[in-house]
Amino acid sequence: MTHLLNRLTFGPRAGDVERIRATGIDKWLDDQLHPGRIDDHVAEAMLPQLETAPGGSDQKELRQFARRQVVTLASEKLLRAMYSERQLQEVLVDFWFNHFNVYAGKGRTSMFLPDYEHDVIRPHVFDRFRDLLEADAKSGAMLFYLDNWMSTAADTNQDAGLGIRDSRVRRRFGRFGRIPNPAPRIPATRPAAKKRARGVNENYGRELLELHTLGVDGGYTQQDVINVARAFTGWTIDRDGNFRFVAALHDTGEKTVLGHKIKAGGGIEDGEQVLDIVASHPATARHIAFELAQRLVSDEPPKALVDRAAKRFLDTKGDLREVVKAIVTSPEFLSADVRNAKFKTPFELVVSAVRTTGASVSDARPFVQTLQQLGEPLYMCQPPTGYHDTADAWVSAGGLVTRMNFATRLASGNMPGVELPSTVRDSKALALQIGSPEFQRH
Amino acid sequence: MNRRVFLKSGAMAMLSLGFAPSFLGRAAAAASARRKLLIAIFQRGAVDGLNMVVPYGEADYYRMRPTIAIPRDAVVDLDGFFGLHPSMAPLKPLWDNHSLAIVHACGSPDNTRSHFDAQDYMESATPGVKATRDGWLNRYLQVSSEERNPLRGVALARTMPRSLEGSAPALAIGSVDEFGVRGPAAAFQDEYAGSSDRVLSAASNDAFAAMRTLRQAAGVPYRPATGVEYPNGPFGKALQEIARLAKADVGLEVAFTELGNWDHHVNEGSVTGQIATRLDEFSRGLAALAMDLGDRLADTVIVTMSEFGRAVAENGNGGTDHGHGNAMMVIGGNVGGGVHGRWPGLGEPHRFEGRDLAVTTDFRDVFGEIVTAHMGVSSDALSRVFPGHRAASDPAVIRG
Questions:
Q1: What pLDDT, in 10s, does the model give residues A341-369?
Q2: Neighbouring C-beta atoms of residue B9, cutoff 10 Å
Q3: How far is the alpha carbon of A22 from chain B, nearest alpha carbon, in Å?
């Protein structure tokens, strides 16, 4: 029971085991797999309000706003993880955000973050993978972060295409005001730069195959990367920061992707066809099954389990609820040797610490800072790989010292915005519990 | 500085002539037994290499930069063609005694002009490959020794820089004094030492051993060598901490720190102005570090890097936009002084994509030479530090 709570929630609170026993494990799990059934208004009421963007064009003000925005969102993510009753959903939001990672520090990416987490990731974690993938491919955050918004057919005329859209994009964002110019900058005063066609940008195409779907050993070639990128030319962002397909920027030539022919003369359907091809590919099923099993079971999940989960993925046309269910109801999940085998990520550590103490957190910002010190600043993971959730990525001498210091600080009751229950008497014992080797694992 | 110069040219010469005083023999023997040290300094934000190491012999340089070029008579002349920005005068003594090598037109084979991507590529040292999990400095630590001492690799930075991320133990600390357990340290130590969790027990053991080493070796307040003045601010402080660790012999092999704010799209300035202020702090810091290291500089290489250079032409705002090739500096007692790398010229046909300084030396060739010729990694192991890369040039920044 504790194992179930360790893996499917952000750690047990006092009384959780008894509550689930009363509900029945099967019913509890079924509810967690259907979060819409679970009332969550208490946690919802605790979330901080997102600020409206300043209207002006002051760059400094906008940068400061963007920074505050990331802190607010990180607070929101922490509070949901601490207090939401829809725990499995939040565990999977963290998982899928890292799977489809974007970095708030790259240009305007942070402006797209609220929509990204609220509308792209969270609603789809129990959906079909194909739907999640398409929502992601069409999200402002991903289009911007992996540069696809500026990827065009090689022969696109700059003035007819991006030149105009560039300024439109800059003028848009009613709620964000003017947005800093993205890199790379093209100075209007330099004729040489104007002539420089940007052409196809392979960034998204490569990561789509390598990270989002097939996996690095998924059997694709550089030519596949190029052709996938060509299929997504013209998938860009409109003046409101929403997805827009611009036919004039699209490469309409014939493309072959993983052996499938995409015929010439296509438009937005080229990219959608690529999503069909990769989402239903056996390598994708395996890759997603492996990653989920790695998060939910062990750093090196048993092959038989991954095979079964991958088969479930293919049999259900990528139904993520069914894949998760197959993993967590497997004998491998319950096997004694995977209990407490996972090392908590910093995010999992701080959230589980709050849950185990029963602390009430009215301001999560101190935890946002803790995560920075522990090397997992939320939304600030640069590479598209996202944060890893395996022990080798997180066990370090310096990291342990920071964890001990965090445990001491939390247990001391001296964190602003954090109130420990009055039952906590011995803060040293609590520090030693939260900082213990056992508590670093789940 | 004088002492260092003496040791470098004087002691070695006297030793080789066979009449070195015995204390110098001991000093030289101790020096050779000491660990080699690599100090990596990242200029984040893409420094304008053409105003840092100025090709003042190029007419195109002045034609393309009517307001921000460094005038011929203002540069600190190096070799009749290149000159340093006047703010970099503190580095001139290092140049004069051949302890400063510059690799110009150096950079990445990847053409990205995104700070984020280019920094990532330079730190992973796998340009174009985003999925690389560790950084090149950590891979050096991985291939060079099995020793579990996190003080082998230390970043003076708030979070672990990408360059040092990876499976080899390393530390990111704000300062030496900051690193420690604030709380029931002994109880934590016992708790982990007695744990059956061997992985965590070992990591904790590393941490407490490192704390002990630091307390013993660097426990007293640090005083730089006589006459050394670090610039005020976090950069100078970080360099001072690096010197402190280097001199304390805590096992340091790789140190990292960074200095930001080089992204001068607007009002870059010339002899004075924004870039002059940044280069002043940067150069005074490097000169102070070299001087403070004293005879330890003989075993040290300091290398500076920035994700890409800036466009040859100035823009409409008195600044420069993102470019390609840049200048890298290598400082140390065993450095082959001079300006290295093939100079491609600034004329339009020689530029990268018609606008930027071309790259004639892959930055990994410079890193690679330092890792082999200075740090002593075998050429077999080198391919594990720079996967997928085969050296294409010989920057010759390290003397054989």
A1: 999 999 999 999 999 999 999 999 999 99
A2: 13
A3: 34
